[in-house]
Amino acid sequence: MLRDTLFLATFLASGLLNVPSAFALEASAGKPNIVFILADDQDAKLNSLDYMPNLQKQLVQKGTHFRKHYCTVAWCCPSRVSLWTGKAAHNTNVTNVEPPYGGYPKFIDQGLNDNWLPVWLEHEGYNSYYTGKLMNYHHVLNYFDPFPKGFAGSDFLLDPGTYSYLNPIFQRNKSPPVHHTNEYNTDLVVEKGLGFIEEAVQAKKPFFVTIAPIVLNTNITLAGESSKSSPIAQTSSPPIPAPRHANLFEDAVVPRTPSFNPDVPSGADWIAELPQLSPENVTFNDLWYRQRLRSLQVIDELIDSVIEKLDAHGVLDNTYVIYSSDNGYHISQHRLAPGKGCGIEEDINVPLVVRGPGVPSGKTVDLATSHTDLAPTFFSILGITLRDDFDGVPIPVTEKTIEDLESSGKAKEHVQVEFWSKSTGQEYNADYPEVNNTYKAIRIVGSSYGFYYSVWCGGDHELYDMTVDPDQMHNYYTTSSNGTFTTSGNVKINNHTYSTSKISERLDGLLYVLKTCKAKTCSEPWATLMPNTGVTSLAQAMDSKYDAYFAGLTRVEYERCEEGYIADAEGPVFENGEAYSGAGMIKKHRGPIRNRP
What gap in Å lies between CA 528 and CA 534, rounded to an integer? Predict the structure, then answer.
């Protein structure tokens, strides 16, 4: 338990005593508002949304559900930073949950505290409010060094109490932290979030309120305060529900999909070597699943309360209510213990539901969207000019923009996924070996086809046809006797049959661009990979006239495995000298791998 003297000393050391001043800009009447509810570790694949009746009633039925929404890093801190900046993790350089490659200290070191959503909104005359978890390693020893910028009001969860369901630590505005002994974490977040909506309405300015409870995350007890930059030892256990929900869903178990603890190993690299879970493991994982569903009920109650409060103040019709999660979660899939960080659908496919002005009711959309698209989407629906350095693009939320994009054939069909770490990301298994879990991947969501392709830092490759194998059980790549990776078999794209080797060449070329893309190159990679060809999709790139180009293109590979983004470990970088010339690839001698700024 933290002592009051620590709080006082930390507070005095900050030298900051004043609550942030009111914003200078006054908004014009009629500007829309946003309430953004951000869950923690919620999957879109294991039926958790089915256990949320208020979300179904208030958001899914009265808004639009984007079913193919993805995080680009399946880990809390890097995912959240990408969400708030509209940039891929390889551009924020926040690639882990703790220093030296991630966490709040890395966010500050990269200069992002001056260049993220609440600061941008402040300049546009919006009041931003935030309560709950901001990001990992935001704790009692660094919350003031400096304070997060851009907020009219904030009440953050802080380590070492962020993930404590019963003994959380909150820090409001620029006041010292408060340790809430034997109080339920998520109920406090709900109370504070509803209070900020009240405060936002009374301020009579357009607002953006974020409510970010830790529901579904592991209950974590940290072993000490440590230092500003060093990791803290921890012990983990299943989520703890509110007492009123403790006995719900007694019969619920992890969905027994084909990937659930399979008899035959699946996946690649260290995942392919996992032993089958024991009956005791499965029983425990089913309990973990139930505890997640139970803890989720508080956020479902929150959704109803948010709608009621907005309606009571007469601002519901001018407010977007948006629901999502930082990353997904797996439990027993591919023999995995409870955790995240993998490229499987359970970890990267996350909820996104939008209700608000002009948003169609009861609509489902299967366009490919990602967390790097959220900041541009917020700008778009609030009428703010898009930034040139956004890696993402606005998600269409009105009936017309959705239909126009669906019918135009110009919808983005790719999501670039990346990960760096030396741990498996398993939440509760002390016997798990510490292994490298660094990979780059691409998820294709076409109108009638879908693929997942990945390259691991150790050399393993994966290719799955997601239309016939949504559980990612049949990897088309195999390892030959001499250690090389080859593919076999055929797949279909728009009723045309292609060899998996031909598909993988195209996907590897696309990943070659995306792994270091910036801004428009991230949203329109084909234009960089194949300029002046008119190619905008995988189907178009399959034309045989491009075979020689892709066969000669440098392949994605790593120089070595690292726990974070280090330029000279990332392998070859796509350069314009390798772009398609119309007659094939312009051959160019590749010198040493250049360091990217």
Answer: 11
Separation of alpha carbons 214 and 24, rounded Å:
33
CB 73 within 8 A of CB 82: yes
Confidence band for 232, pLDDT divided at 50, 70 and 90: low
Pair 356, 381: CB distance under 8 Å: yes
Provide the pLDDT confidence category of residue 410 given band limits of 50, 70 and 90.
Answer: confident
Under DSSP, the state recorded for 586 is -
Q: How many CB atoms sit inside 10 A of residue 592's CB?
A: 6
| Confidence class for position 408, pLDDT limits 50, 70, 90 | confident
pLDDT tens-digit profile of 432-474?
667 889 999 999 999 899 999 999 999 999 999 999 999 999 9
Least confident range from 269-278, 383-392, 570-579: namely: 570-579
How far apart (Å, rounded) are the C-alpha atoms in residues 28 and 7?
A: 41
Cβ neighbors of 293 (< 8 A, separation 6 or more) are 48, 51, 248, 249, 252
Q: Where are the alpha helices (DSSP H) in 368-491?
A: 374-382, 399-408
- How many angstroms separate the most distant Cα atoms in the chain? 72
By the 8 A CB rule, do 463 and 453 touch? yes
CA distances from 536 to 180, 444, 505 (A): 53, 12, 16
pLDDT, tens digit, for every residue of 491-503?
Answer: 999 999 999 999 9
Please confirm, yes or no, whether 76 is among the known catalytic residues.
yes
127, 167, 464 from 468: Cα distances, Å? 47, 46, 9
Select which of 76, 517, 522, 561 is catalytic: 76
C-beta of residue 188 within 8 angstroms of C-beta of residue 211: no
Q: Give me the DSSP letters along 302-348.
A: HHHHHHHHHHHTT-GGGEEEEEEES---BSSBTTPPSB--SSSHHHH
Instruction: Read off the pLDDT of each residue in 555-569 and give the average, rounded to a whole number.
Output: 95
Residue type present at position 289 = Y
- Count the Cβ atoms, other than its own, within 10 Å of residue 100: 14
pLDDT tens track for 120-147: 999 999 999 999 999 999 999 999 999 9
CATH class of 4-408: alpha beta
Higher-pLDDT residue of 532, 597 = 532
Question: Residues with Cβ < 8 Å from 211, sequence gap 6 or more?
Answer: 35, 36, 37, 38, 131, 132, 189, 190, 193, 196, 302, 306
Phi, psi of 528 (to 5 degrees): -85, -40
Query: Over 60: is that where the pLDDT of 4 sits?
Result: no
Phi, psi of 72 (to 5 degrees): -100, -10
Domain chopping of the chain, boundaries: 4-408, 477-578
Q: How many CB atoms lie within 10 A of CB 205?
A: 18
